[in-house]
Each structure stands twice: as structure tokens, then as C-alpha cells.
Amino acid sequence: MLKKFGLIGMIACSIFAFSFPGQSEAHANTHTVQKGESFYKIATKYGVSSKQLQEMNDKETSVIQPGEQLKLPVVPDDYERDLLSRLVEAEAKGESYAGKVAVATVVLNRVESDLFPDSIHGVIHDGIQFSPVLNGTIKQPASAESKRAVKEALAYQGYDNESLFFYNPDKAQSDYLSEKEVTTVIGDHVFLK
Predict the structure, then answer these.
(1) Which residues are the signal sequence here (predicted)?
(2) What separation in angstroms does the CA of 72 have from each of 2, 58, 106, 107?
């Protein structure tokens, strides 16, 4: 009997110890500067460029102080990179390459925003935000162009106009979005913040 409870306990612990793909954080949103660190050392640690890290934190110089909190770019795992590529494919199929990059950038901006979940998976599966999640088209594979657009959007973090929303006004109307500031229009999509 004791063995049976032990086995059940081990199974229960295993279920809680292993998370589903994309459910865990693929990145940390901030880094606390330690004595002796530089933008270069921190960027190398996280696999991003020091210029991108500096730009994301609105730093005109490379001076940082111990204890300072730095925002970090989103660094997704393979699952989240594929998920984002499939979303871009489904949402921006037929749009220009720039439109695909912009759609991926909206998702990454949402990860960084306090208004949305802190992971790509969380943002994409947040309620009824994206129609491809609802209609199942997100399950279709991404094209090489959509994958390349995601790669560019990841490298572009910190240099964009902070768009958090997009929609096609020919297909959808929204009083909520009509109150937002338009950041750019690319193809059939209007991007807003």
C-alpha cells in the first residue's frame, strides 16, 4: 500500500515538474546588473546584440550601474519560435514581408507589455486575440518567409514603434481599436499602440 502511494506521489510530482511546451518562460524579462558587467557581457550571456540591449533600455551611452534593471529582448525556445512563425503565416498570408515582420513584432511587444502574458505562447493563446487560434489555421506549417520574418522581428526588438495591435479594417471593425494611436499601415493591416 505504501508503495502504491509513493508511486502515485511520484507521478503527481512529475506532472507538475514538467510543463507543457511553451508554457514556461523562454526568457527572463529583466536582468539586474551585477558589479563588473557591461552591455557586451550581458548581451553575450543572453545571445542578443549589445546595441539591441542598449536601444531597448533607451541608453545613449554604454554606462550601466550595479543594481540597475535592464529589459531583455524576448528569446524564444524552438517551440515558441515555430508557434510564432505559424501565427505569422496564418495572420499575414498574402501580406508583404514587412507586414509579416510587423505581425511578429506585435506579439513580441505584447510579451514585453504589462497588459499581456509574459510568453509568446501566452500571448498567442490569450483569449480570442488571434483568429488563427480560433479557426485552427495556426496548426498549418509556416513558410520559409514567415520563419525569416520572425527571425528579423526578434533581431529588431527595441527599434520599433511599439505597436501592440493590428487589424484589417476591411474584415473587422472595433470601437476599442478606433481609440488607439495608429503607428503604421502595411498592406491591408493597420498597426496601433
Answers:
(1) 1-19
(2) 48, 12, 16, 15
